[in-house]
Amino acid sequence: MMAGAIWAGMMWPVANPKHLKSWIVTVIVVSSLRAALFFAYLYQKPQGDDLLRWWVPYLITLSLAVPVWGIGTAIVTPHDSLVHMCMTYAFLIGLGGAALPAYGVFTRLAVGVTVVLLVPIVVLLLLRGETQTTILAAAGLWFFLTSIRAIYVHNASITRSFRLAHELRHATRIAEFLANTDGLTGLNNRRAYTSTASAILDLALREKRASTMLIIDVDQFKQINDQHGHQIGDAALVLVAETLTQELRTSDVCGRLGGDEFAVLLPNTSQTAAVEVAQKIIDHLLAKTIETPTTSVSVSLSIGIAHGLTSFETLLNRADTAMYEAKRAGRGRIVVAATAAE
Question: Comparing C-alpha atoms, which of 341, 277, 335, 267 is closest to residue 306?
Answer without folding.
Answer: 335
